[in-house]
Amino acid sequence: MARNTICLWYEREAEAAAAFYASVFPDSAVHGIHRAPADFPSGRQGDVLTVAFTVLGVACLGLNGGTAFRQSEAFSFQIATQDQAETDRYWDAIVGNGGQESACGWCKDRWGVSWQITPNVLTQALSTGGEPARRAFEAMMTMRRIDIAAIEAAIAGNGGRGQ
């Protein structure tokens, strides 16, 4: 068992969410499904209570806690991508499975968990600083899904309008 585990609150679909994440991201899997030993405020004995899983090697626990709390952008998974194909694959999987687009490479899955699908070229440009970072940042601010070609054009000083 991991010493530090991220606990994500779901209304009732922790098992479905964990299975989805395991199907989309490498180094991800469902490790255990634990059922409630007795009735609890939002469920009955035998209902799925928690699901142990990993997302890209990060230990997580999905808790079916009912409606008391909701996901928010205060927590997000930031997924570093190597190229546009990988960026598109993750974005399309999350948004195309009942999720929704947001701005600047952020999206939400159908359970309300926020994801930042962030190409390495953008992270590298922002960490470098100076004019290329400013141009990359300004280009990113116009995008939903990150367009790597537009970020690269902005870094080079050739514009950078995205999707």
How would you summarize this macromolecular structure in one to three sentences?
With 163 residues, this protein is α/β, with parallel strands linked by helices. The protein is 33% helix and 27% strand.
Descriptive report:
This protein is elongated. Helices cover 33% and strands 27% of the residues. The protein has 2 domains: 1-67, 2,3-Dihydroxybiphenyl 1,2-Dioxygenase, domain 1 (Roll); 71-163, 2,3-Dihydroxybiphenyl 1,2-Dioxygenase, domain 1 (Roll). It is of the alpha/beta class. It has helices at 14-24, 84-96, 120-128, 130-140, 148-156, and strands at 6-10, 29-35, 48-55, 58-64, 76-81, 100-101, 106-108, 114-119.
Broad structural category = alpha/beta
CATH class annotation of the largest domain: Alpha Beta
| Major β-sheet profile | 4 strands, mixed
Task: Walk across the major sheet and give the strand order.
Answer: 1-4-3-2
Tell me, briefly, the overall form: elongated
* Strands, total number: 8
| CATH topology value of the largest domain | 2,3-Dihydroxybiphenyl 1,2-Dioxygenase, domain 1
**Estimated helix fraction:** 25-40%
- The count of domains is 2
Distance between the termini: 41 Å
CATH architecture of the largest domain: Roll
SS element count, helices: 5
